[in-house]
């Protein structure tokens, strides 16, 4: 079993809120993602057993949403927005800067397992572009100095 | 009250709408789509994602039409036809729209038609040719799905024992996923990811191996899903087609054979949609079962046992020997010493010829088609046999609002009816109830599944009746009559004995009382039970109490392709009186000597009171539910003749073996479980020297100088007169007392055993189909997760199954469905003689299970 008893309880609570069990798929995936840090086939099967839905339907929903990582990622998932507003004010150079600084390419994880760098579609924070989401938090109006500071803080916390 | 609402429903006329399509006025019922309206008058609109038996999704957009006053092109498959609409299906705008859709669909399509098995019958190929352009504006790299191991060419990916997926060719019409979920209720296929990497694939960690998976390949509009059965074997334009009828299932699905005449070989079976029977869906048994026809194991020449071994002989020698021996026995000991068993999958002519040969030429009444039932009653006019002759219609399941499945595991016995039931639930909101001694797959959509204690069928039925009377669900007069004739029984006591809750019984009673159109279908667990008679009596009581016949159908579902034909042609020792009357008219007389059924014949063979048995296509050694008993009988036969397609356990014992044609090799008529007479045409010439059942009977009759009785035209006319007898025997007018007996328990044998069919097999022949064998694997014993846990068994580990009479060692299969202590053994594997564990006198066979230590 991958899911903890606590997660299973949370999923059950969420499932009870909806008239149709299927509606609980995304909330359940979110619970699993927050616990594990990524999703995989075994998790789909476990969720399927908890909310009594065929695992294939869970997998369909999970793979449709790119925001759920399907492979293990570093402790901090750096998600740089590459969509229009951010791109216009230098998202690409932020990505290159992070690649050089961390010594990895987009989609890779650092050797110490701390950072995974990916770029994502619009996160709805166009007014404060360029921006990055690290795990579940937004960091906006990015500059190289801001990124340096952020990474330092995260390293210190880890 | 109920009558009132019925009248109201009948009084509401169906609203019709009239629209104009391409200048033609079309009137259709409200609710139909523009596409359906157009097709109803023969105007063709191209489609990919539309399927007449599935809900519309409008995902491919090729069915664009222009509708006046609507600003953009509309998808006709998802636009409801409205009064006064003016539709154009062929305007310049529509043509341009279609061209754009084709261009878009082809963006990532590999255009590998020369190596694609769909080529020649591909919707995408045809529609591109008809509506597309010969150029593409695409100047970037196509998305290509690659298989990591590159073990297959063209990025093919195996997603099941039969199915191969090529995601590059897929146009994402979702027909496979939709039919799998909505029509078949299977969840082993899904669509993952999004955008240009959206793709079809099997469920995580699973294979696409459900018993309907072949349909996914057939409905794929492109070459994304292909099956190994057809891949790289032949091009479609090199084949010819022959219309036929399925020979493995009792519903008689309509099929088409694709064959190559020069090679005398069948290459595949596809559907020939008939909405009354199959809705165009074929179970895999039907689709891949044909492979037995061209099996290299087919018997090709007659065999005679000489000095202990069977040697090949000519037909003349074999037939002369049979005629001489039968005549000897008839003259010296009397014709009552000869018996015959026929297979219920043979055509009408073979079965009728078999019966006529025995009755008219040999003057013996010992004929039977039921070689898989124990303890058959000697009389033909029993409540069970009368119930079995009640009318049944497959399509009536569609609009039944209450469906009760009693004693049947539909997905193992009746695939078409299983799908109909799902359709009734998915599309018309039918309420389903399942009453069985073990949990079944069909119950996943049931409002209530009642799993009762094995061997307590009649208790459940009595309890439902009693609940209706107690809760005043039927009027006082009816209830009074029931009480008077049946007496008062204690509901709680009944439920306790059957191991079910009183609430569940009451829920079923309420549904039966309130249902407007009810289908009550009864399966093999009843018909093969020793206590079929009292159970049938209890069903009749229920029928009478709720007036089920007046508001729907109560029917025993016949198994096998032509059981109904055998029943109607009187291939039983004592046919129903109306059949005997007809035979007397047709033949001027019928023998009046003693008549013995399968059970009695086997018993008399053992006692050496019957000397000879003639077996036409049946295999009692594999299907009779007491192997010891069957073997003792057959081994003592002085003269055993067995006709079959293959060497079987029965032919091994025979003195003379005759090779039989399969149904694909001659024109034959078959009566399906509804009583519908259908014709299967010969697709190929007989394999080897095999002959049809009728030809064998006629050739033998000629040796008894009775050729005149077997003239084909006369036989055909006699058969049609027999089948034309439309009367159905009346069910009991009064309530009957239900008295069933139970087995005395044997110590140590604590787990009930049920013999069943694997969902991918039917009868003893399908294991010769390589595809079906691939699906089912080896023989197995299916048990619940709990039971496996207690026995410390994991999937695939060996288990010893012991009964008082036998013992087998077999791999265990942990079921996702079973939830009680019971073991299911499929009887389709000749390698494992499951009937060796059974005793004919038992109501429920009991076994004990233990883990085999290596």
Structure description:
The complex is a heterodimer of chains A (158) and B (854). Chain A is an alpha+beta fold. Chain A has two domains: 5-64, Arc Repressor Mutant, subunit A (Orthogonal Bundle); 76-157, Glutaredoxin, CATH 3.40.30. Helix content of chain A is 47%, strand content 11%. Chain A has seven helices and four strands, in the order ααααβααβββα. In chain A, strands 2-1-3-4 form a four-stranded mixed sheet, covered by helices on one side. In chain A, helix 1 packs antiparallel against helix 2 (25-36). Chain A is elongated and about 50 Å long. The two termini of chain A are 27 Å apart. Chain B is of the alpha/beta class. In chain B, 31% of the residues lie in helices and 18% in strands. Chain B has a seven-stranded mixed sheet with strand order 15-14-25-24-23-16-17, sandwiched between helices. In chain B, helix 9 links the parallel strand 16 (338-342) and strand 17. The A-B interface holds A 41, 44-45, 54-57, 59-60, 63-64, 66 and B 187-194, 203-206.
In short:
Chain A is α+β, with helices and mostly antiparallel strands and 158 residues long.
List the helices and strands and how they pair.
The complex is a heterodimer of chains A (158) and B (854).
Chain A: H1 5-15, H2 25-36, H3 41-51, H4 55-64, E1 76-81, H5 84-88, H6 91-102, E2 115-120, E3 132-134, E4 137-139, H7 144-157
Parallel strand pairs in A: 1-2
Antiparallel strand pairs in A: 1-3, 3-4
Helix pairs in contact in A: 1-2, 2-3, 3-4
Chain B: H1 2-11, E1 16-21, E2 24-29, H2 34-40, E3 64-67, E4 74-75, E5 86-88, H3 92-105, H4 123-131, E6 157-158, E7 163-165, H5 175-183, E8 189-192, E9 199-202, H6 214-219, E10 225-227, E11 240-245, E12 254-260, E13 265-271, H7 284-289, E14 303-306, E15 309-312, H8 315-333, E16 338-342, H9 348-361, E17 367-368, H10 383-388, E18 402-406, H11 410-413, H12 415-428, E19 431-436, E20 448-451, H13 457-470, H14 476-486, H15 491-498, H16 502-514, E21 518-522, H17 524-527, H18 532-546, E22 552-556, H19 563-568, H20 577-587, H21 598-606, E23 612-616, H22 620-623, H23 627-636, E24 639-644, H24 649-653, E25 656-659, E26 668-671, E27 677-680, H25 693-703, H26 712-723, E28 751-756, H27 770-776, E29 781-783, H28 785-790, E30 798-802, E31 807-814, E32 823-826, E33 845-851
Parallel strand pairs in B: 1-5, 16-17, 16-23, 18-19, 18-21, 19-20, 21-22, 23-24, 24-25, 28-32, 29-31
Antiparallel strand pairs in B: 1-2, 3-4, 3-5, 6-7, 7-10, 8-9, 11-12, 12-13, 14-15, 14-25, 26-27, 28-33, 30-31, 30-33
């Amino acid at each position: 079993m991958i899911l903890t008893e606590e997660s299973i309880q949370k999923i059950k609570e969420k499932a009870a809120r909806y008239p149709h069990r299927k509606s609980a798929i995304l909330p359940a995936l979110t619970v699993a993602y927050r616990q594990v840090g990524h999703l995989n086939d075994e998790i789909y099967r476990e969720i399927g057993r908890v909310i009594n839905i065929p695992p294939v339907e869970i997998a369909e929903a999970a793979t449709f949403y790119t925001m759920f990582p399907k492979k293990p990622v570093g402790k901090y998932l750096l998600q740089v927005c590459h969509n229009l507003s951010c791109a216009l004010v230098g998202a690409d150079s932020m990505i290159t800067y992070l690649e050089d600084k961390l010594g990895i390419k987009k989609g890779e994880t650092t050797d110490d397992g701390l950072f995974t760098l990916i770029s994502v579609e619009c996160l709805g924070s166009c007014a404060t572009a360029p921006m990055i989401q690290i795990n579940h938090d937004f960091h906006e109006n990015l500059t190289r100095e801001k990124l340096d500071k952020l990474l330092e803080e995260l390293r210190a916390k880890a | 009250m109920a009558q009132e609402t019925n009248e109201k429903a009948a009084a509401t006329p169906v609203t019709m709408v009239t629209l104009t399509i391409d200048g033609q006025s079309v009137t259709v019922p409200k609710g139909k789509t523009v596409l359906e309206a157009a097709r109803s008058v023969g105007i063709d609109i191209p489609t990919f994602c539309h399927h007449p038996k599935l809900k519309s999704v409008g995902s491919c957009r090729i069915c664009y039409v222009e509708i006046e006053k609507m600003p953009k092109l509309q998808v006709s498959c998802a636009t409801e036809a409205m009064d006064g609409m003016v539709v154009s299906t062929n305007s310049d705008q529509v043509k341009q729209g279609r061209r754009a859709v084709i261009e878009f669909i082809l963006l990532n399509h590999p255009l590998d038609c020369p190596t694609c098995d769909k080529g020649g019958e591909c919707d995408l190929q045809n529609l591109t040719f008809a509506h597309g352009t010969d150029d593409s504006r695409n100047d970037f790299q196509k998305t290509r799905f690659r298989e990591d191991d590159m073990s297959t060419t063209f990025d093919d990916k195996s997603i099941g024992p039969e199915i191969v997926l090529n995601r590059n060719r897929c146009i994402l019409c979702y027909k496979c996923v939709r039919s799998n979920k909505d029509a078949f209720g299977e969840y082993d296929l899904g669509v993952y990811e999004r955008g240009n990497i959206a793709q079809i694939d099997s469920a995580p960690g699973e294979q696409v191996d459900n018993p309907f998976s072949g349909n996914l390949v057939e409905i794929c509009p492109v070459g994304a899903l292909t099956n190994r059965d057809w891949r790289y074997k032949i091009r479609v334009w090199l084949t010819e087609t022959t219309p036929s009828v399925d020979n493995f299932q009792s519903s008689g699905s309509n099929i088409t054979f694709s064959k190559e005449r020069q090679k005398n070989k069948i290459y595949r079976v596809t559907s020939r949609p008939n909405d009354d029977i199959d809705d165009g869906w074929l179970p895999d048994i039907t689709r891949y079962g044909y492979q037995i026809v061209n099996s290299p194991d087919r018997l090709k020449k007659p065999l005679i046992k000489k000095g202990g071994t069977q040697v090949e002989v000519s037909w003349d020698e074999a037939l002369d020997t049979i005629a001489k021996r039968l005549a000897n026995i008839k003259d010296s000991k009397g014709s009552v010493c000869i018996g015959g068993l026929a297979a219920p999958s043979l055509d009408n002519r073979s079965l009728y010829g078999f019966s006529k040969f025995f009755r008219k030429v040999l003057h013996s009444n010992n004929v039977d088609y039921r070689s898989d039932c124990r303890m058959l009653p000697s009389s033909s006019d029993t409540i069970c046999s009368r119930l079995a002759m009640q009318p049944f219609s497959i399509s009536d399941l569609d609009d039944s609002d209450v469906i009760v499945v009693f004693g049947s595991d539909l997905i193992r016995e009746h695939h078409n009816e299983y799908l109909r039931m799902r359709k009734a639930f998915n599309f018309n909101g039918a309420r389903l109830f399942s009453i069985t001694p073990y949990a079944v797959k069909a119950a996943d959509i049931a409002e209530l599944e009642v799993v009762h204690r094995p061997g307590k069928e009649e208790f459940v039925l009595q309890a439902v009746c009693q609940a209706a009377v107690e809760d005043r669900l039927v009027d006082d007069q009816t209830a009074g009559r029931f009480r008077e004739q049946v007496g008062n029984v204690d509901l709680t006591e009944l439920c306790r004995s059957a191991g079910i809750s009183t609430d569940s019984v009451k829920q079923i009673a309420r549904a039966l009382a309130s249902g407007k159109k009810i289908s009550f279908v009864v399966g093999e667990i009843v018909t093969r039970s020793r206590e079929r008679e009292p159970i049938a009596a209890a069903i009749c009581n229920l029928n009478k109490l709720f007036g089920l016949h007046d508001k729907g159908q109560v029917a025993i579902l016949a198994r096998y392709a032509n059981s109904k034909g055998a029943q109607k042609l009187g291939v039983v020792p004592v046919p129903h009186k109306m059949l005997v009357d007809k035979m007397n008219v047709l033949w001027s007389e019928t023998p009046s000597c003693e008549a013995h059924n399968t059970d009695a014949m086997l018993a008399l063979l053992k006692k050496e009171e019957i000397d000879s048995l003639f077996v036409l296509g049946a295999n009692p050694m594999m299907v009779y539910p007491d192997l010891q008993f069957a073997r003792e009988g057959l081994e003592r036969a002085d003269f055993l003749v067995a006709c079959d397609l293959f060497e079987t356990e029965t032919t091994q014992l025979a003195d003379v073996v005759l090779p039989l044609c399969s149904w694909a090799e001659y024109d034959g008529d078959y009566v399906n479980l509804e009583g519908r007479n259908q014709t299967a045409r010969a697709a190929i010439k007989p394999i080897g020297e095999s002959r049809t059942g009728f030809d064998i009977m006629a050739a033998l009759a000629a040796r008894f100088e009775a050729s005149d009785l077997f003239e084909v035209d006369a036989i055909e006319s006699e058969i049609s007169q027999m089948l034309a007898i439309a009367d159905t025997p009346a069910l009991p007018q009064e309530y009957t007392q239900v008295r069933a007996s139970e087995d005395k328990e044997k110590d140590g044998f604590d787990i009930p055993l049920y013999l069943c069919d694997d969902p991918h097999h039917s009868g003893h022949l399908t294991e010769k189909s390589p595809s079906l064998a691939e699906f089912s694997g080896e023989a197995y014993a299916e048990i619940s997760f709990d039971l496996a846990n207690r026995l410390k068994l994991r999937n695939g580990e060996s288990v010893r199954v012991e009964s008082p009479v036998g013992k087998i060692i077999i791999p265990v299969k942990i079921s996702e469905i079973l939830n009680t202590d019971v073991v299911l053994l499929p009887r389709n594997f000749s390698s494992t003689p499951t009937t060796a564990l059974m005793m004919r006198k038992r109501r429920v066979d009991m076994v004990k299970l233990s883990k085999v230590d290596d």
